[in-house]
């Protein structure tokens, strides 16, 4: 009886440790362009996103891309907005584009860690990303959403990955 109680307590401790400590970099699953894509919602190799809740409206927000401990990171103007599928899930689906949006993206790569004149500036650790999604997605209804950006090491373009941050439209 005492042995069973110890086994149950040990299993419960392992489960709690996994849920508490193991979720830091567990990616959410986001359907982007019809493909299931892992998106990290917390710090990923020293790169992460934030959204100031005070800036969120139905038509846009101010997102901030942060980097720490690495010399540079690249990103483009492309982004995605996804909506949570179920209240407590980690599954998201991209919001559909409005009719008439062509999906044309600027191919310009912005390298964070350099000043605009291409002079190295390792103190450059944040990049403000004002986002107006009204032309692409239209105004968002109240709910839980995910802002997703693709980031890349400019010296290793095969290192592309997606990072995201949750936000709420009230």
SSE layout and pairing:
Layout: H1 2-21, E1 28-32, E2 35-39, E3 47-51, E4 60-67, E5 73-84, E6 91-94, E7 110-112, E8 126-132, H2 134-137, E9 143-153, E10 156-169
Parallel strand pairs: 1-6
Antiparallel strand pairs: 1-2, 3-4, 4-8, 5-6, 5-7, 5-9, 9-10
Describe this entry's structure for a reader:
It is a single chain. The protein has 170 residues and is mostly beta strands. It has a single domain, classed as Immunoglobulin-like, CATH 2.60.40. The protein has two helices and ten strands. Mean pLDDT is 76; it is low at 6-24.
Would you kindly provide a brief summary of this structure?
This protein is mainly beta. It has one domain: Immunoglobulin-like, CATH 2.60.40.
Characteristics:
Immunoglobulin-like, 14% helix, 44% strand, 170 residues, three-stranded antiparallel beta sheet, mainly beta, seven-stranded mixed beta sheet
Mean pLDDT figure: 76
Helix content: 10-25%
The low-confidence runs, each spanning 5 or more residues with pLDDT under 50, are 6-24
Strand proportion, as a percent range, falls in 35-45%
């Amino acid at each position: 009886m005492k042995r069973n109680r110890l086994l149950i307590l040990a299993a419960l401790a392992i489960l709690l440790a996994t849920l508490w400590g193991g979720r830091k970099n567990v990616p959410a699953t986001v359907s982007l362009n019809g493909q299931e894509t892992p998106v990290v919602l917390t710090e990923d190799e020293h790169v992460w996103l934030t959204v100031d809740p005070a800036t969120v409206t139905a038509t846009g927000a101010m997102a901030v891309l942060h980097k720490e401990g690495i010399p540079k990171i690249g990103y483009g103007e492309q982004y995605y907005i996804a909506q949570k599928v179920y209240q407590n899930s980690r599954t998201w689906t991209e919001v559909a584009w409005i009719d008439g949006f062509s999906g044309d993206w600027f191919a310009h790569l912005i390298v964070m860690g350099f000043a605009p004149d291409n002079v190295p500036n390792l103190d450059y650790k944040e990049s403000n990303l004002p986002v107006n999604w009204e032309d692409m997605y239209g105004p968002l209804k109240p709910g839980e959403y995910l802002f997703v950006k693709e980031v890349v090491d400019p010296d290793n373009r095969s290192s592309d990955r997606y990072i995201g941050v949750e936000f709420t439209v009230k």
